[in-house]
Specification:
7% helix, Ubiquitin-like (UB roll), 102 residues, binds FE2/S2 (inorganic) cluster
Length: 102
């Protein structure tokens, strides 16, 4: 996982490790992570593609005010993953317009 583990000011208390599924692949996250932070910590940064030019989109505002992080979560499209907590067994998929994202 890509995580900051040490910091001169902040402390990182131990949290429960959970498993969720990104496009069928099991990944781990910490309880309390958002879906977006869990994906980024697993090296996944492309969450959807832009509507017109089909360019990859990922985390942008990180506060639920844009549409850059929309994904399909548990079969529901248009979920803002930057403000949605990840849960045990959750399924997450990229939101594609024509299914050609790398
Ligand atoms: S990154 Fe802007 S709403 Fe999630």
């Amino acid at each position: 996982m890509r995580r900051i583990t040490e910091h001169p000011i902040l402390e990182f208390p131990e949290r429960k490790v959970i498993t969720f599924y990104f496009e069928g692949k099991p990944l781990t996250a910490y309880e309390g992570d958002t879906v977006a932070s869990a994906l980024i910590s697993n090296g996944i940064q492309a969450f959807r593609e832009s509507i017109e030019l089909h360019r990859p989109r990922g985390m942008f505002c990180a506060i639920g005010n844009c549409s850059s992080c929309l994904m399909v979560v548990n079969g529901v499209p248009n979920v803002r993953t930057c403000v949605t907590p990840v849960e045990e067994g959750m399924t997450v998929e990229r939101q594609l317009n024509r299914g050609v994202m790398p």
